[in-house]
Automatic annotation (TrEMBL):
Protein name: Plant basic secretory protein (BSP) family protein
Keyword match Signal: yes
Signal peptide: 1-22
InterPro entries in alphabetical order: Uncharacterised_BSP
Length: 227
């Protein structure tokens, strides 16, 4: 039985790799003349970026349990642009573009390749996730993106620790850790939540999936970590 499960997992992963490779990935450094752009070329590069776009796509499909084209957004191509801009990065869902700040790359202290890999996992999640027709709290959609980054192993050291934060929908790392707690209560919870968000959003989804309101779950989560 265990061998059969392993075989099915392998075949599913192989199929996902093949489908992900069919997506067209492009990466362009529009800030090569800046210090951050030069650092991108020297320590990261466009070829590595395209590999991360592909590997993150497979990871996202697996976490979301979307191994067939009918399950996921219809995305044929994704582009990454390194730009001279403020902030870190953002995704444009209408055009399936990701823009990354060369200033952030230039000023980052530490392993910038690992950091930008994590940023790309986050932004690629936005490309593939469902946005509930813009009805879901922004903190939830951002938390799902950081949940993927967390599960992929690219959570940076500056993130908050599990149990920290003021609200469940505070977003990013706070919500990512909360979603990880919920996923521990029900394996595949985040995948199920994402599926529900294909057509809309309701706080009742938490009750339907876990039997408790999101406020009750947040209270339980905080209590687990003594907060």
């Amino acid at each position: 039985m265990a061998r059969l499960v392993l075989l099915l997992w392998y075949l599913g992963t192989l199929a996902a790799f093949r489908q992900a490779s069919a997506v067209e990935y492009t990466a362009l450094n529009n800030a090569s003349s800046t210090a951050g752009g030069a650092r991108f070329d020297g320590e990261i590069g466009t070829e590595y970026t395209k590999k991360v776009m592909n590997s993150s796509t497979v990871c996202i499909w697996q976490i979301f349990q979307e191994l067939t084209s009918e399950d996921r957004r219809d995305v044929q191509a994704v582009s990454v642009f390194i730009e001279s801009m403020e902030g870190v990065a953002y995704a444009l869902i209408d055009t399936n573009e990701i823009h990354v700040s060369s200033e952030y790359i230039g000023n980052y202290s530490g392993d910038v390749k690992n950091e930008i890999t994590g940023v790309l996992y986050h932004e690629m999640t936005h490309i593939w996730q469902w946005f509930a027709n813009q009805e879901a709290p922004t903190g939830l959609t951002e938390g799902i993106a950081d949940f993927v980054r967390l599960k992929a192993g690219y959570a940076p050291s500056h993130w908050v620790k599990p149990g920290q934060g003021n609200r469940w929908d505070q977003g990013y790392d706070v919500t990512a850790h909360f979603l990880d707690y919920c996923d521990g209560l029900l394996s595949g919870f985040v995948a199920d939540m994402n599926k529900k968000m294909k057509t809309g959003y309701s706080p009742q989804y938490f009750v339907e999936l876990l039997g408790k309101t999101v406020d009750q779950l947040w209270s339980d989560y905080k209590a687990k970590y003594g907060n």
